[in-house]
Design goal:
Blueprint lengths: L1 E5 L14 H14 L5 E3 L2 E8 L2 E8 L6 H12 L6 E7 L7 E4 L8 H10 L5 E6 L8 H5 L5 H21 L4 H9 L4
Parallel strand pairs: 1-4, 1-5, 5-7
Antiparallel strand pairs: 2-3, 3-4, 6-7
Helix pairs in contact: 2-3
Length: 189
């Protein structure tokens, strides 16, 4: 069983904000690949269960707000006894330009509070990540920037990127992660 976690903040006021790119991509992927899925409210979040290549896959959107995302992840991991090796977390990344992404096997949280909390709650930083670039505006406060809405141009860019990321996620379910990184990270420089 695999767990794919899309990070974001709950509530209409956070729709189409930079920090919610994980939520947005999970919704896009599930809609494109599975149509209307049933979301269940549990584990301090919402999760959907689908079958991919005869394997159960859980998609989780924590609703604890970004800085406490680890609470939700820890609860679902414990309940389903999910291996750390089978977790993929999708989040925004200030250090990547809009339209870019990076797959990462493990590493530090890079200042991302949602990832930091997941690391704290799981007791490890050795989970897989799909980081989606949101750029960085050094002229504004980081909190205001990540909670800000996307421009029309950025939304158009993400539409194209999400189509590519669907291929990445499809391959995630088939390929060893090192092969996945080799296949996609080279093309993304």
């Amino acid at each position: 069983m695999k767990l794919v976690v899309g990070l974001g903040n709950p509530g209409k006021e956070y729709v189409n904000t930079r920090h919610n790119i994980g939520y947005s991509f999970v919704d896009y992927y599930l809609d494109k690949k599975f149509g209307d899925v049933n979301w269940t409210k549990k584990f301090d979040g919402k999760y959907a269960q689908v079958i991919v290549d005869k394997e159960k896959v859980l998609f989780l959107k924590p609703e604890t707000f970004m800085n406490l995302s680890g609470n939700s992840v820890r609860k679902i991991v414990d309940y389903y006894d999910i291996s750390i090796d089978d977790i993929l977390v999708i989040s925004d990344d200030l250090d990547l330009l809009v339209g870019n992404f990076k797959l990462k096997l493990y590493g530090s949280c890079g200042g991302h509070n949602g990832l930091r909390d997941i690391e704290n709650k799981l007791g490890t930083s050795e989970y897989k990540r799909l980081k989606i670039g949101i750029s960085n505006d050094k002229t504004s406060d980081t909190k205001d920037y990540v909670l800000g809405k996307f421009s029309k141009e950025e939304l158009d860019t993400y539409q194209d990127l999400f189509n590519k990321l669907c291929d990445v996620l499809d391959d995630y379910f088939k390929l060893p992660f090192n092969d996945l990184m080799s296949k996609y990270n080279r093309k993304n420089r």
